[in-house]
Amino acid sequence: MKTPIYFDNHATTPMDPRVLEAMLPYFSEKFGNAASRNHAYGWESEQAVETARKQIAALIGANPKEIVFTSGATESNNLALKGVAEMYAERGNHIITVATEHKAVLDTCKKLEKHGCQVTYLPLQQDGLVDLDQLRESFTNRTILVSIMYANNEIGVIQPVAEIGKMCKERGVLFHTDGVQAVGKIPVDVQRDNIDLMSLTGHKIYGPKGVGALYVRRRNPRVQLTAQIDGGGHERGMRSGTLNTPGIVGFGKAAELCHQEMAEESVRLRELRDRLKVRLESELDEVFINGSMEHRLPHNLNMSFAYVEGESLLMGINDIAVSSGSACTSATLEPSYVLKALGVGDDLAHTSIRFGIGRFNTVEEVDYVANRVIETVRKLRDLSPLYEMAKEGIDISKIEWVAEAAH
Amino acid sequence: MAYSDKVLDHYNNPRNVGSLDKADPNVGTGMVGAPECGDVMKLQIKVNDSTGVIDDAKFKTFGCGSAIASSSLATEWLKGKSVDEALAIKNTDIVNELSLPPVKIHCSVLAEDAIKAAIADYKKKRTPAAVEATA
User: Fold this and answer.
1) Do A107 and A207 reside in the same domain of the chain?
2) Which residues of A touch B68 (CB under 8 A)?
3) Last residue of a domain, which of A258, A274, A294?
4) A20: part of which helix (H) or strand (E)?
5) Which of B38, B61, B113 is facing A385, going by the closest CB pair?
6) Burial of A169: CB neighbours in 10 Å, binned 0-12, 13-18, 19+
7) pLDDT digit string (tens) for A95-136?
8) Which of A304, A360, A385, B9 is in Cβ range 3.0-4.6 Å of A348 for a Cys bridge?
9) Do A314 and A274 share a domain, yes or no?
10) Same domain as A198, residue A286
11) pLDDT-based confidence at A397, cuts 50/70/90?
């Protein structure tokens, strides 16, 4: 077993060797510009791009013509939101989204607000799910777009996307979803879910970084977008720029592999995740799962370990690559905004760890991670004055803390 | 984030972890920080009546590795010092000794505060009224 063990598959995934193999020729001998119409080099690249388009479309139940290649999901989110806001400005200016969206959606919304859009940021319920009644009440006659992620990157909670899509369709409002954490991991179907726009990326599905796509519905309704990058009119005019052929080929291959292997892989990952969860829950007291377990990606576990601080926990398990919702690990010195939106107190948000299990993780690794986490939490609790007080029966929430020094 | 070797050493082998009897008149207890801020330090000193020297020091810390190291180091430094010498320990001494980066300076501040709080608690216990009450 090789350390550090990679358990941060929501951040990015290692590239599948089969993907790399598919890409390699397009860096060297097959270097043509997919937009070159006059020679075999161009045709060869164009054909490779069209194959990838089909592979990606097949994974999400779309038509290949509905796939617009971008540099990644951040660009796709920007294009979807800004492109719709600009194109449909005469119809309305109201957008509905959720407080726990990725910053690529939230910061884009903030910018759109400066340009006259009105944005409703829905809160979440304690289990991380959107309240559909609250969503229903948020529509106005000026609403043009709803943007709600398929599954959350921190807590892995899967939103009731099909219901949201239906609600939008009934009202003639476009529905965009950031699908990067869900696509390739659970079955996603743009027809079943009534999705009009969906952001995708290569590097979360064992493909390369720097390549993504935006699904843009062509029929019922035909979604139009104002391009955000102008130039040669590539990608049906929605996204100019010479196509990243090797990246696109890799993205396509990665999508094909997910399509073929997802059913089996998700069962295996769920077993690994549950094995980790059972170990941690049975051998440690005062651990808390953040977000719904029922509506959750099979490979995600987000847990708070009361009375130990997240960064010191990460330091103790420094041979394991995971993420923490703790303040100290981020540049902002704020605990995770996603956990805060769930109503998780700052104290527990500071002690949270996100485990993201992936294609290349093994049972041995899960057992190793469980052992290391259990041993480190126990050690840190022996060090923790809070754990000591809790064991003495002192209610920590009732103490008046002298906290000025910490800021 | 890269930690200095000294921070790693204190994190892996924290010195003087534990608790002293809060009710002992010779023990001063300082508890500073807040769980919401991600740091709570409890630091205790035991002062020898006859010599006025700190015989023992213990800590427990909820916080990042730098906070644990800062409080662990503080207990090492406190042992053998008089109360007045202990009051002279500055957070910058801790920053220098542990090579703390700027974002971790608050950990050293907290450790200095914990020292001061423990000494204040000890002195409060030693005021005549308190001595009588506990005698």
Assistant:
1) yes
2) 312, 383
3) A258
4) helix A17-23
5) B61
6) middle
7) 999 999 999 999 999 999 999 999 999 999 999 999 999 999
8) A304
9) yes
10) no
11) confident
